[in-house]
Amino acid sequence: MDKLNELLTLIAQSLVDNPEKVEVREVTGEQTAVLELKVAPDDLGKIIGKQGRTAKAIRTILGAAAAKMRKRAVLEILE
Amino acid sequence: MSIVLEREGKTVSEAIINVCEELGITRNEIDVQVLQEGSKGILGIGGKEARVRITVIRSEVSEKGLRAKKALEGILGFIVSTHSVDLKESPDKIKLDVKISDDKGLLIGKKGEMIKAMEYIVGKISSRSCEDGKQKRVSIDIDGYKRRREEAISRIAKETARKVRKIGKPITLDPMTAFERRITYITLKHEHGIGFETKGAGEEKRIIINPTISSGTRSRESSQKEA
């Protein structure tokens, strides 16, 4: 299950200016994996995007990766 | 157009390996010019970094294209086990064609939603760190899905235009995504005897095809005059 974690880390680190500040915590349940993403305050906008477009795209990609494992993924972006 | 990069490393070979990893290319695809040999110094004091200038030989692709391919392969690696990505570039587009055997539906998504999400993220990642090819749009296709969709939409547009000319009344098409509307506009531009407009907003945007009996013949006359 740590694959989702790695995927999110890869995408987030590729998008931000401070990749070393990217933190991902995963809480895995029976059917749902909750992924908590923390980035540097300056990078928050890059992860969310205009009108949440980037966040939505990340959720879609995580959703596909989770579906492959017959799970659901929930992305929480922490401030 | 060729890609030229300067990079540092502890040794010359380390600097070369770093560049190859960064762009997802092999040693055979680059020319290397050593700007400065690295040296260890004494007891770690006075050491110098090696500096190299790398020229990528494949000139038909841009740096953004290579970065886009690398980013897409990275994401795909987490979802499907085997895949191949083919990179092609035109003046305004970076085309990434993905070939896979299973899980096509997963990578296409509902109405191509997953393709759109990957295009957006890969576009963002690849244009972040380089200027070369920045104006190019990233276009991803999974196993020819988009091509088939384009053909189907173009066919519907042509058939509807024919129907409108025949009955002389406007016909409203089903709501379409931005990508689908683009194909429709391009197709309809080549059809004579009809005009079109768009109504609605967001998910409910529809194209209406109107009959314009006179303008069709007029445009043909004018084109004859030009010829």
Q: What is the strand and helix layout of this fold?
A:
The complex is a heterodimer of chains A (79) and B (227).
Chain A: H1 2-15, E1 23-28, E2 32-38, H2 44-48, H3 53-68, E3 72-78
Parallel strand pairs in A: 2-3
Antiparallel strand pairs in A: 1-2
Helix pairs in contact in A: 1-3
Chain B: E1 3-9, H1 12-23, E2 30-36, E3 50-56, H2 63-79, E4 84-90, E5 93-99, H3 104-108, H4 113-128, E6 137-142, H5 145-167, E7 171-172, H6 178-189, E8 194-199, E9 206-211, H7 213-226
Parallel strand pairs in B: 5-6
Antiparallel strand pairs in B: 1-3, 2-3, 4-5, 7-9, 8-9
Can you walk me through this structure?
The complex is a heterodimer of chains A (79) and B (227). Chain A is of the alpha+beta class. Chain A has one domain (2-78): 2-Layer Sandwich (GMP Synthetase, Chain A, domain 3). In chain A, 44% of the residues lie in helices and 25% in strands. Chain A has 3 helices and 3 strands. A 3-stranded mixed beta sheet of chain A has the order 1-2-3. In chain A, helix 1 packs antiparallel against helix 3 (53-68). Chain A is globular, with a radius of gyration of 12 Å. The mean pLDDT of chain A is 92. Chain B has 227 residues and is of the alpha+beta class. Chain B folds into 3 domains: 4-56, no CATH class; 63-143, K homology (KH) domain (GMP Synthetase, Chain A, domain 3); 148-226, Ribosomal Protein S8, Chain: A, domain 1 (2-Layer Sandwich), CATH 3.30.1370. Helices cover 44% and strands 24% of the residues of chain B. Chain B is built from 7 helices and 9 strands, in the order βαββαββααβαβαββα. Chain B has helices spanning 12-23, 63-79, 104-108, 113-128, 145-167, 178-189, 213-226; strands at 3-9, 30-36, 50-56, 84-90, 93-99, 137-142, 171-172, 194-199, 206-211. In chain B, the strands form 3 sheets. Chain B has a 3-stranded antiparallel beta sheet. In chain B, strands 4-5-6 form a 3-stranded mixed beta sheet, sandwiched between helices. The longest helix of chain B has 23 residues, at 145-167. In chain B, 28% of the residues are buried. Residues 215-227 of chain B have low confidence and may be disordered. The A-B interface holds A 3-4, 6-7, 10-11, 14-15, 49, 53-54, 56-58, 60-61, 64-65, 67-68 and B 71, 74-75, 78-80, 103, 106-107, 109, 113-114, 116-118, 120-121, 124-125, 128.
